[in-house]
Queue: 2 jobs
Job 1
Amino acid sequence: MILTPDAERVRTPFRLPLFTTQRFSMPTYVTTPIYYVNAMPHLGHAYTTIVTDAYSRFRRLCGDDVRFQTGTDEHGEKIAEAAAKAGEAPQAYVDRIAAAFRDTWPLLAVQPDTIIRTTDAAHIKTVQDILQQVYDRGDIYFSEYSGLYCKGCERFLTEKELVDGKCPDHLVEPKAIAEQNYFFRMSKYQDWLIDHIKSNPDFITPERYRNEVLSFLSEPLEDLCISRPTSRLTWGIPLPFDANFVTYVWFDALINYLTGIGYPNDPDFRHYWAVAEHVIAKDILKPHAIYWPTMLRAMELEPYERLHVHGYWNVDATKMSKSLGNVVRPKELVDAYGVDTVRYFVLREMSFGLDSSFSSDAILARHNSDLANDLGNLFSRSLTMIDKYAQGAIPERESVFQFTPDDRELMSAVSAMVVQYRENMDGFRFHKALQAVWEVIGLLNRYIVTNAPWELAKNPRQGDRLRTVLWLLAEALWKIAVVLGPVMPATAQKMADALGMGNEFAGTVIDDALNWGVIPAGTEIAKGTQLFPRLEKLANPVSASVPNPAKPAQQEAAAALGEGLISFDDFKTVELRVAEIVAAEKVAKSDRLLKLTVKAPEERTIVAGIAQHYSPEVLIGLRVIIVANMKPAKLMGIPSQGMILAAKEQRADGTEKLVLTTVAGPVAAGSRVA
Ligand code: MSP
């Protein structure tokens, strides 16, 4: 709220009566995963960190006392191997890559309060203290174990997690390992964890991930192997009770969330731990939703408050990752589009929880359409009119009794937007928060057209009306600047500066955006501020391999229908056909795959993962439905040209039953299904 002695010129700000959302100052503690230093930062890392930064800034805007932590995960087999490959000593290697992560954050306008490293002496000591404590309580024991280990995941995988015998994330077969190790009695806490998840619906969100964890927990939980023998790995934290072993990297890494806030003795620990929120992608759901809460329980600590799980950024329908070599670098994006466009794009484009595809076309479309066109034009147009018709200063408005229904409707819509924005930011629905802002931007653009200030300016008797229209535009733009602050900090500051409110901006809280009459009349504005220059398609797009980039028009159509729905045009891109199975045989060395020859009407080979559900001989003559325009893929070295549709039934025991889809009457092979 602006206080000024010039009471003649400034009216007291007022608030539309409907919306009061008072919130008391609270602590917020939010973390990103700590990133492995075996790879340079890419868009996937950037996304989680931008989300967490935007959320931190949003919480600050709500008046909270925020602690935002990120960091790097520097121990373990993967890192030791990467250092050896780079020909560097592990410590020198991790120092170098950790610095690359640290240097990336300012480029993305990300401002963490703490950047923790697992090689920090304080972290190492805390991990050892915790291990000793859990060991003394009898929750760590020594035993022999054999299992399938995926080095990429740095954990043992269960048979059920494998797809075609491979880790679905790293596309490699896990290694069978048998050795003596220390184990954490995770199974002891299984019932408690199930109860906790069931009685706290917000503990893991979005809901699909909560369900995934509960489904996983419907089977007996195994104990967690938490050591690695030094004969195999030395790059880790030595176990305090056995020098022949180092700590398993996940048991070490998860504890960063405690050490960063000074566990156990720092007052910050009590203050922030009670409200801890972790942001991760679905790849590390299991360690965060199962290992971590049970570890905390064993330490007699409260679990974190919320776990926010997002999907993957894909390129060519495959997760972007270093091991797959399809990465998009944050610096290249920032250089090409500007930091605020990158932040806006990732938050607006991805529905938090679902996967998204990155493409240069999509980011360019968002930049030119949402930013340069909708917001940028609205802003420069409004300021130009204030300059021209109100001598470059915020005009005095009419009495509130003179507001037209159009004015009141717009003001209600702006205040409602602030409330929706707040609810959606709080619920990690960033795309929806931004949709609400852009709806208001659309309304403002229409308000200009219907109220035509250039016409009002021609008639001196319309002076009061003209000033009210310009006043309302300026006030609404100020509110838009306030809500965009967490997403596009530099743009929002630029908007505030141009509106003559640059100095007030830093101290603004979201409730101020519910007040009207905030900018003092007479405040000078700066016309000619261009927020986003239009960009041409790059000659060398940042990502060359783009899987059918969704066209903006199609996206809008989908948005109009509702989240997650597709248009008929989208559906038509999938070519479904009836196919007759003419031959079927087991694929050697695979217990899941069958090699099928089908007529559709041409003859093709399809490799299908149905061997556990159908024996080959029963399939001959069956007419099934296939996706005929699937990109060919090789499975166990056999080229597969299409995909067979099957219903998947989740059985009560957690296993899956597959039933092929067939047609209900006689129909020729090759017939189109639509
Ligand atoms: N070191 C562990 C985390 C320990 S936390 C106690 C780790 N590191 S990682 O470098 O592999 O980072 C994984 C995280 O990076 C994901 O959970 C996600 O936050 C981010 N992403 C990496 N690739 C991603 C995509 N392709 N898409 C979206 N986010 C991704 O796991």
Job 2
Amino acid sequence: MKKSILKILKNNKDKFISGEKLSEEFDMTRSGIWKYIKMLKEEGYDIESVPNKGYRIVSSPDILTLEEIEENLNTSFIGRKIYYYDSINSTNDRAKEMAFEENEGTLVIAEEQTKGKGRLGRSWISPKGKGIWMSMILKPELGPINAGSITLLAAAAVHSALKNLDINSEIKWPNDLLIEGKKAVGILTEMSAELNRINYIVIGIGINVNLNEEDIPEDLKARATSIKITQNKKVDRKKLLSNILNEFEKLYIPFVREESTAHFLSICRENSATIGRKVKIIKNKEEKGAKALDINEKGELVVQYEDGKIENVFSGEVSVRGNKGYI
Ligand code: ADP
């Protein structure tokens, strides 16, 4: 009911809608309508109410609900259902709990994560209202082996969405995006599968959108940044989120239908922060110097070690560091 009232107000942006009209439409008393208006106001909607004229929406809050992003969303199933939380431990953990019951494309989004996760048990800082902290449930009909490159599909989607907003980024294989050489986006993919069948994949995407310098812990300052810090202005989270979901679906549909990785891998290759660089491949605490040569069609990193040996590195098992530092 609250959502339907909001929709009418949003569809009539500059007009007043009378309480009488709303109460007729929803077969409810005018004080009943007022209760919902009050709830919307408490959520941060600025709604003007003028006697004898009615209600008019003046502005909407900066929150990542479906009602707030759907006007820019042109997907058929990605992001069409959103579980939205003010605060949660980890969006990936919540998405995994509900993955069996939910349809493909369902999202978990939180304004804050208290136990945000990175890969290999690392943590991900996610301050309130400043980023996009979300997880997507997917159920592709692919063999588990063919799903390995899906993190890169997500990275390509985020890269394209940022580009649509005139923000340049580079993809650090396999799961980060850098802006001005520092990490601004991290992706964490988790999968539940049988031998030959995927039950579900949860892709967590954490984007440092409007974090200020002081939101980034001292020990991360040298390698982490935000879009706001690099662009010198606040960025519309809703626009960025809907853009990412649109770009994601555009890449995901052909990937699942034709198992074609060509398009998103070319985005990853052309905008790679890794290819052509000297890197350190860290596997089970063992470090090896190498040069990153390419990303192959499975999404693996092709590296050449100092002894000349060439190997295809699978993303699940390694961390990649720059020769001198993080990148
Ligand atoms: P890595 O980049 O080391 O392979 P992950 O991609 O799993 O690791 O990301 C987790 C790491 O990212 C953490 O150990 C921390 O160093 C860093 N980190 C944590 N939160 C953020 C953030 N919001 N932005 C950028 N980097 C972060």
